[in-house]
Amino acid sequence: MDPRLQLLIDRAEIREVLEAYVHAVDRCDRAAIRDVYHDDSWDDHGPMKMTGSDFADACTDAILERWTGATHLLGQSRIRVDGDHAGAETVFYASLPRDAVGAKMLDEMVGRYIDKLERRDGVWRIKDRRTIAQWSTSRPMGEDFMRGDLFLAGQRDPSDIAHEVLGLKEGCARIAA
C-alpha cells in the first residue's frame, strides 16, 4: 500500500479514537470510555491521575455527581504516526452545566489533550494522556430560551437517537467501518 494512504488511514482511525472518547464522556458511558484506553494506559487529567480504566469510573462518577450534562467539542488535531505508535495534540472545549444554590451555572474549559497512542492487534488506543488546561471559567446561566418541546431531548444512554443513527454498539463509542 502507498505509505501516504496508510498514513491517512492511521490518522482517520486515531481521530475516531479521540471522537469516541468525548462521545463516551458526554454520555457517561464507562465501558465506552474504557474502550479507548489500553489496559496498561495512564491518564493525567489534572486532579485525576490514574489508569485509563480507573479514569473511566472516576470521570463518570464526577460528571454524574456534579453536572447535569457535558458537551465536548474537538478542534484541530496534530497527529504524528510512526509505525504502531503515534502522538497527538488535540484542542478541546468542554461545557458542563450544573445546579448551584439559587442558580444554574455553566463551567467551561479550553485545553489540549496530549496523547501517546499505540496500535495493538490492529486497533489504536490511548496509551498515555496528559490534559493541559488553557483556561476555565464558571458563570451563571441565563434563561434557556430553547427549552420545552422545540427540540428532541438528548439522553446519556443508548436511547439517544445518535446511537441508532451511528450504529453504535453498547460500551463502544467508535463508529464501525
Can you characterise this structure?
The chain is of the alpha+beta class and 177 residues long. The protein has one domain (3-166): Nuclear Transport Factor 2, Chain: A (Roll). It has four helices and six strands, in the order ααββαββββα. The protein has helices at 3-26, 30-35, 52-66, 161-166, and strands spanning 37-45, 48-50, 71-82, 85-100, 103-120, 123-140. It has a six-stranded mixed β-sheet. Strand 5 (103-120) and strand 6 form a beta hairpin. The longest helix is centred in the first third of the chain and has 24 residues, at 3-26. The model has no long low-confidence stretch (mean pLDDT 92).
Key phrases:
177 residues; alpha+beta; Nuclear Transport Factor 2, Chain: A; six-stranded mixed sheet
Strand content: 35-45%
Helix residue percentage: 25-40%
Q: Per CATH, which architecture?
A: Roll
Overall shape: it is: globular
Counted by DSSP, the helix tally is 4
In which order are the strands of the major sheet placed? 2-1-6-5-4-3
Annotation, overall tally of beta strands: 6
Order of helices and strands: HHEEHEEEEH
Mean pLDDT over the full residue set: 92
Structural class: alpha+beta
